[in-house]
Amino acid sequence: MRHVDLRSDTVTRPTPEMRQAMLQAEVGDDVFGEDPTVNQLQEMVAAMLGKEAALFVPSGTMGNQISINAHTRPGEEIIVERDSHIVNYECGASAMLAGVQLHIIDGQDGIMTMEQVAAAVRPRDVHQPQTRLVCLENTHNRAGGTIYPLEEIARISQFARERGLKLHLDGARLWNASVATGISLKNYAQYFDSVMLCFSKGLGAPVGSIVVGDREFIERAHYYRKAYGGGMRQVGILAAAAIHALEHHLERLADDHRRARKFAEAISHLPGIRIDLERVQTNIVMFDVDPQVMTADQLIDALRQKGVFMLNLGPRKIRAVTHLDVSDADIDYAIEAFRELLGH
Ligand code: TLP
Questions:
Q1: Pairing outcome for strands 209-213 and 194-198
Q2: pTM above 0.85, yes or no
């Protein structure tokens, strides 16, 4: 039986060519700053994003969390969107480790407007926490891989600068936004004080994320990376996978987007499936199952029997994500599995 794993773009396994690059990587002790491959990756990504410096980190979660810590002081407030990864899937780390309070805003499909951000900023008042940082997410995971409009980013950025607030981007899948829109990574990054990007998602590397920003910010982030236990030694073997991914797997994200679109359109015609095709903009397909027909759990179980794997995000909500290890034939197979289960 075919095995089509659409639970996440994190499930990819390194290709033979990527493993070869890892095998041949020159390495050194990165805690001493002496790993040439890590240094090469950091310089490469800083240049791609048009920032002064970059820092390789073990995970997206650590990248976001050390950025939050580096921008803030305990007791300060950060503005975040309700469905964001930082709010929902990072174990409350911002409170646990940076000691900040979250000011949560209801966005529309993950998008907060400048007006919403402005309304959430605290006045200078001896009673109130002080707002220090705003975090955006692009593409937005829980909203279904949606792309943050550049104009809104620009407006929020201008407002933040005027008010002396910092702006951080959870760009775990910024690569996807850039490939889908043709807007360069640099163009996106210019609006932010810090950006976190993942190599371990659609790019197909086994481990690793990166944070970019100005030199002073990266120095502070470096301090927190060590404090969080993220100082790694001969980690050039992982940086080599990331460099390989940037050189060979970036443009092909367009294939993932095309396949996600094909899958979404095909299942949208089936009874019991509710899906907003306008929100299928990159490699994530989020849809609801009509509880009269089946629960999300039941559909996921039935799909698993056929070798198709998806993620349950609620009693009705299911997520499917395309990636490097999902071919056109895999997508056709997944569509056929849906037709068999729901077609009649
Ligand atoms: N997302 C994972 C799960 O944690 C939900 C996934 O399968 O999508 N920001 C965003 C927008 C993410 O989607 C993720 C991972 C992260 C940060 C965290 O990255 P890691 O898993 O490397 O800590």
A1: antiparallel
A2: yes
